Each structure stands twice: as structure tokens, then as C-alpha cells.
Amino acid sequence: MRRGGMLATVIVVGSMLVGCSGTGAPDEGGFGLGALTAEDALAAFVRAGAAPERLRGTLTVRDDGCFTWSGESGDGAWIVWPDAAESDRDDGGRVVLDGGEVVSDGSALSAEGALIALADLPDGGNPDSYFGAYGGFCDAGSEGVMLLTAVAAG
51 pLDDT exceeds 60? Predict the structure, then answer.
């Protein structure tokens, strides 16, 4: 391989590894928090033929970092949050909800949402897309997706 081609390959591979490895900063590395805007969530509900309903459940944070729903409906489903939710900068196992409430493993949740298929998310059927890869990693292909449009602790 010519020197220029090899250099380009090293730069591309190196940049990919930096994105995977993180530097220890809590907001780097991993997939982040799976979230959708209200508009994208509505489109996903339409694709799924579902409508948001009131839900009560419990947040489970798996050892692999996946946030899953425990409850009567969608037990074990991967959670996709409203876009106002954020990962806690100090602890990636916690979620900061709209309004500043912080929830973590075992927290009771009151929400509006519905269980949908991974393929109903934007590019969810593509294993190389953000949602396809993240959801696939979190078993959403078999357990489903709990798509939330509103959520609060309690």
C-alpha cells in the first residue's frame, strides 16, 4: 500500500477507536441515551399502529448499561426516552428527566408511551444505524422498545 493510503487508513481507524474507548469522562463513549423528539416519536407510533398510554413501571439498568422497562406491559423492553431526558454527567447509570428529577436502577416511573418494535424507530431495522445497533445490543429485537413521550419519577 502506498504511504498516503496507509496514513489515511490509520487516521480513519484511529478516529473510530477514539470514539469507542472514551477518555474516562462520563459523557463520552457508549451509545449515549436513546431518545426521540416528539415528532419522531409520533412517526414511530404511526408506523407501529400504537398510541401512547399511561404506564407505571420500574427502571432497570442492566450490567451492560442498557436501560430497560420492568412492568406489566413490555417487561424487559429497551427504553427510548423523550429528548428532554439526559444522561447524568456524573453517573451514566442515572437519567436526568425533564424538570431535573434523577432516576436510576430500581426507580419507579410514571410515563406516557407504548411498546413498539425496534423496526418502528427511525432506521431501527438497519443494524448499522444508531437505533438498530443500540437497540440490537440491548435486545430490543426480541424484547421490544418502550417508547416514552413523557416520564416522571414515581
Answer: yes
